[in-house]
């Protein structure tokens, strides 16, 4: 086999809450440099899936492999330390701190390590923040301004830049433009396209099919607690995806849609 | 100038200077080195408490027990020196240990158990006051050994009153901690967005516990200066100091909702409150009017904070 | 706006104000109370104010908010800055106020302690009721009411305080001097009315032949009356001697419960305190300890005393 190892490979992931089958026997793969979109109705299992791969919850069964290594995430921090950066809808930004402080929040660069009283290296963090924002294409006029003075789009960009800057393996974006206007959405989408050019692997959770088709290489369809289809964006169309989401289209009838939905033994 | 006006403490600076000008005109006794030095000395204890309180309020909490805890630290230290003949430096260590222990207790209940800080410290308000009386048998202890008289009303190099020296050093340290350490940064982060701070992996429980320990330590320090200043100690000292300390922090531009504010503002706030009292004393205004004035100032400060917050949220 | 102009105006205003205050070389007396607002202190403060008005001095009355020592300290410091000519002070705490008082004395400002003494400072004078002498009056009256060998109850004040100790000593000494075999049953309290009530109840139950009850303060007498009522004793069956001359005490007398009261001259304490401060400011020699005396109030003179002392305004029974 010459196919490169996927960044993320998931086999048979299952999570049941008592009798509620939130997610059953799900298989998933994210290739190097790939941008994948996750779509599905509310309650289709998307959120559970994201919680499991970000360590917020632990699966009943199934395995997660990151760069070919089997991993277990005990907490979101654990998942992050192992290379998965997540941008939550709530953004996890401190509105009263400035941009460099937010980018380095929780992983400050220090001059002297004294535990909680570790002395911060303001200069280094500022410089790194500037270069990080530049590579992500995020423009911030006044770095010393707090986020309170910024728009939702700017905040989203800061959060994405932070994730991109620290992601060792991949990024997960949860509804990044749900709360934004048209112009701001466009700006955030530009940033995401920039990440694609840089080859940063990414999972996008979105209800916006126009956006999904614009940004994603591959679309994964969730339905009733299962992953039912995986199709290349170039080989499908919005009508078909809507059909898969609602169940009007049978995945068996879509060429290649179920090819990746089986167990893969990794070499 | 624009950037100065944007600082949280700009308002209190203007208010303090304005009041100073008004008092200079209204009373011939106000504007002289002696009185200004008096104001700083009188502000010192409140300023020390306000320093710790700033940390707590920045995280979105409040510490109502600082007056009582100051009394506990001071009364026990005094009791050990006067009644038990303990070495004064050891008594200082005991006061600090009590401050840290009570701070840890408060912080544990708030951060790990999840009881609102308002309730924990409201209960503490009477617990620590009661313990202060109980532990010392309700005695008044006077005539403290060195170095207390020096700390309380001595002058460094025969020039600067010691309480001012302590206050200035304290604010330099606190200001550094808040601006340039992880603790300071996380204090703001927790106050801005507690859930977000948790999501980025900050151990918010320990840091929240930490701010109550900081506040407890500040109480111990305030107690040392206060009993030195009175050259005596008892369980009834520092009545209602929490009000002045919280007022100083809020006047200083720190938001009661957390996340926004500065330590320098709290220092200016403590000076402003003391200056109001000093001015009213010099202008011979009665205690009842003074009580009304201080209460009004507190409400106005919070009022301004609420308006400022609404403006920010509208953005 | 012309900043220089404003600055000049301010400077002119400042200078003229300070010149004005220099020109008026009137005497300024600071009267600093402990912030207590009960009836007794209202009378003391009233006497002080009256004395200030009568002498025509500038009279500054300030109080330690909520009886907080550090605030009283600050007031004393502010009054030193204010360059007052003398300070009359009712200290919140006898010892704790000493550092500030010593500073005032060092600045050449005489300090008079009113009602409560000051330890740790060589104050100019201490004006207050001599508790032993006042309690002697109470004890002598008690001796005239009973026979030797009979039983009396004495409700004490806090025996950890000099006031409580002195009042008990004064009463017992005077009583025993006349009637050496009288039996004094002590009810100990820490100035707490409920303790007094419970203690007297128990003492009456244990001793059926109590002739007289004396109390270290009128609050204790109120407790004693409650205990007597509870035991079904009628007014006057057991004689009762109060101490303080408080409105409540004199009310009890008008209702027939109290037969005597060793009254402190509350208004006089304030008045003499301020008069002494004025005298000291004028560099006159003043006594280090001034007793404002006590007055034995009896049913025959209660109305006149109430009116003269100003206590009447607070009484229920007119």
Describe the structure.
The complex is a heterotrimer of chains A (267), B (315) and C (318). Helices cover 30% and strands 25% of the residues of chain A. Chain A has eight helices and twelve strands. Chain A has helices at residues 46-53, 76-81, 99-103, 122-136, 152-166, 182-197, 209-215, 238-246, and strands at 8-17, 20-30, 35-40, 61-66, 69-71, 84-87, 110-112, 119-120, 170-174, 202-205, 218-223, 226-232. In chain A, a hairpin with a 2-residue loop joins strand 1 (8-17) and strand 2. In chain A, helix 5 (152-166) runs parallel beside helix 6 (182-197). In chain A, 43% of the residues are buried. By secondary structure, chain B is mainly alpha-helical. Chain B contains 14 helices and four strands. Chain B has helices spanning 2-6, 10-26, 33-58, 66-82, 88-113, 117-136, 148-153, 162-180, 182-192, 194-199, 204-230, 241-251, 263-282, 287-314, and strands at 141-142, 155-156, 160-161, 232-233. In chain B, strand 2 (155-156) and strand 3 form a beta hairpin. Chain B is globular, with a radius of gyration of 19 Å. In chain C, strand 8, helix 8 and strand 9 form a beta-alpha-beta unit. Chain C is α/β, with parallel strands linked by helices and 318 residues long. The termini of chain C are far apart. Chain C is elongated, with a radius of gyration of 23 Å. Chain C contains eleven helices and twelve strands. Classes of the chains: A alpha/beta (267), B mainly alpha (315), C alpha/beta (318). Chain B binds chain C through residues 21, 24-29, 31-32, 34-35, 38, 41-42, 45, 138, 140, 142-143, 149, 152-153, 226, 229-232, 234, 236-240, 274, 277-278, 281-282, 284, 286-287, 290-291, and chain C through 10, 13-14, 17-18, 20-22, 35, 60-71, 73-75, 77-79, 81-83, 93-99, 103, 119-120, 160.
């Amino acid at each position: 086999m010459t196919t490169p190892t996927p960044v993320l490979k998931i086999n048979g992931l299952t999570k049941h809450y008592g009798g509620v089958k939130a997610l059953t026997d799900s298989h998933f793969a994210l290739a190097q440099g790939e941008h994948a979109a996750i779509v599905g109705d509310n309650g289709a299992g998307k959120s559970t899936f994201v919680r499991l791969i970000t360590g917020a919850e632990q699966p009943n069964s199934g395995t997660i492999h990151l760069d070919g290594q089997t991993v277990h995430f005990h907490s979101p921090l654990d998942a992050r330390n192992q290379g998965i950066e997540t941008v939550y809808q709530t953004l996890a930004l401190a509105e009263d701190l400035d941009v460099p402080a937010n980018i380095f929040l929780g992983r400050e660069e220090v001059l002297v390590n004294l535990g909680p009283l570790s002395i911060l290296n303001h200069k280094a963090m500022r410089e790194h923040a500037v270069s990080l924002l530049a590579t992500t294409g995020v423009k911030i006029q006044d770095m010393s301004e707090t986020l309170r003075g910024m728009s939702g789009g700017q905040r989203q960009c800061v959060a994405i830049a932070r994730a991109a800057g620290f992601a060792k393996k991949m990024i997960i974006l949860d509804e990044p433009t749900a709360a934004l206007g048209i112009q701001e959405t466009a700006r955030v989408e530009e940033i995401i396209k920039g990440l694609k050019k840089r080859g940063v692997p990414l999972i996008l959770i979105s209800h916006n099919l126009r956006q999904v088709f614009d940004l994603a290489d591959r679309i994964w369809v969730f339905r009733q607690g299962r992953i039912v289809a995986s199709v290349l964006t170039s080989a499908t169309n919005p009508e078909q995806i809507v059909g898969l989401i609602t169940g009007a289209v049978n995945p068996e009838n879509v060429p290649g849609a179920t090819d990746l939905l089986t167990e893969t033994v990794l070499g | 100038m624009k950037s100065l006006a944007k600082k949280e403490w700009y308002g209190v600076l203007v208010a303090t200077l304005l009041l100073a000008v008004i008092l200079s005109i209204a009373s011939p006794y106000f504007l002289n080195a002696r009185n200004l030095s008096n104001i700083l000395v009188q502000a010192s204890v409140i300023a020390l408490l306000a320093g710790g309180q700033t940390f707590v309020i920045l995280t979105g909490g409040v510490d109502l027990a600082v007056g009582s805890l100051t009394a506990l630290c001071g009364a026990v230290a005094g009791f050990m020196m006067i009644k038990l003949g303990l070495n004064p430096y050891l008594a200082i260590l005991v006061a600090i240990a009590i401050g840290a222990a009570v701070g840890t207790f408060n912080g544990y209940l708030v951060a790990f158990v999840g009881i609102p800080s308002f309730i924990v410290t409201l209960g503490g308000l009477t617990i620590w006051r009661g313990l202060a009386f109980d532990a010392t048998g309700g005695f008044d202890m006077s005539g403290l050994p060195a170095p207390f008289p020096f700390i309380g009303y001595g002058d460094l190099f025969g020039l600067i009153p010691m309480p001012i020296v302590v206050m200035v050093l304290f604010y330099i340290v606190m200001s550094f901690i808040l601006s340039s350490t992880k603790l300071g940064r996380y204090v703001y982060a927790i106050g801005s967005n507690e859930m977000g701070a948790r999501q980025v992996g900050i151990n918010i429980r320990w840091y929240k516990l930490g701010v109550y320990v900081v506040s407890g330590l500040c109480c111990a320090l305030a107690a040392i200066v206060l009993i030195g200043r009175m050259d005596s100690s008892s369980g009834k000292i520092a009545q209602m100091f929490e009000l002045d300390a919280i007022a100083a922090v809020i006047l200083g531009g720190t938001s009661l909702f957390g996340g926004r504010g500065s330590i320098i503002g709290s220092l200016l706030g403590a000076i402003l409150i003391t200056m109001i009292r000093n001015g009213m004393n010099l202008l011979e205004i009665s205690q009842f009017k003074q009580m009304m004035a201080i209460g009004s100032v507190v409400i106005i400060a919070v009022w301004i904070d609420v308006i400022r917050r609404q403006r920010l949220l509208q953005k | 706006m012309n900043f220089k102009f404003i600055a000049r105006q301010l400077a002119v205003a400042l200078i003229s104000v300070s010149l004005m205050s220099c020109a008026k070389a009137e005497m300024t007396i600071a009267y600093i109370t402990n912030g207590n607002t009960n009836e007794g202190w209202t009378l003391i403060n009233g006497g002080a104010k009256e004395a200030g008005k009568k002498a025509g001095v500038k009279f500054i009355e300030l109080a330690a908010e909520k009886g907080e020592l550090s605030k009283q300290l600050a007031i004393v410091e502010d009054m030193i800055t204010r360059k007052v000519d003398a300070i009359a002070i009712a200290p919140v705490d006898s010892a704790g106020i000493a550092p500030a008082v010593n500073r005032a004395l060092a600045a050449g400002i005489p300090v008079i302690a009113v009602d409560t003494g000051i330890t740790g400072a060589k104050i100019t004078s201490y004006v207050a009721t001599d508790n032993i002498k006042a309690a002697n009056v109470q004890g002598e009256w008690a001796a005239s009411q009973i026979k030797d060998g009979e039983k009396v109850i004495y409700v004490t004040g806090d025996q950890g305080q000099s006031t409580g100790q002195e009042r008990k000593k004064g009463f017992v000494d005077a009583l025993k001097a006349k009637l050496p075999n009288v039996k004094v049953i002590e009810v100990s309290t820490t100035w707490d009315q409920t303790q007094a009530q419970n203690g007297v109840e128990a003492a009456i139950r244990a001793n059926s032949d109590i002739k007289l009850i004396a109390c270290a303060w009128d609050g204790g007498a109120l407790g004693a009356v409650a205990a007597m009522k509870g035991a079904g004793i009628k007014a006057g069956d057991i004689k009762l001697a109060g101490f303080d001359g408080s409105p409540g005490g004199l009310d009890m007398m008008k209702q027939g419960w109290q037969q005597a009261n060793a009254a402190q001259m509350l208004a006089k304490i304030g008045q003499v305190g301020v008069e002494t401060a004025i005298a000291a400011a004028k560099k006159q020699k003043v006594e280090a300890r001034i007793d404002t005396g006590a007055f034995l109030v009896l049913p025959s003179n209660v109305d006149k005393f109430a009116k003269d002392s100003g206590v009447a305004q607070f009484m229920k029974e007119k």
